[in-house]
Amino acid sequence: MALALDEPRENDKTETIDGLCFVVDKNLLENVQPIKIDFTPFGFKIDCDFDFKTECSACGTTCSR
Description:
- The protein is built from one helix and four strands; from the N terminus they run ββαββ.
- It is mostly beta strands.
- The chain has one domain (1-65).
- Strands 1-2 form a two-stranded antiparallel ribbon. A two-stranded antiparallel ribbon has the order 3-4.
- Strand 3 and strand 4 (43-48) form a beta hairpin.
């Protein structure tokens, strides 16, 4: 999961916090919520409730995304 600049689309959920607008695809949000974004001295840190070491939907093998 990564942060990037983007414009809201029809299938996105938006949330404005402290003047910053966050845009997340609704389907992705269903799989990863809750999402926590912190700013550290090294940049943004994203935590979510998703196990990235599960089977890949494309190939069915275990991998890290």
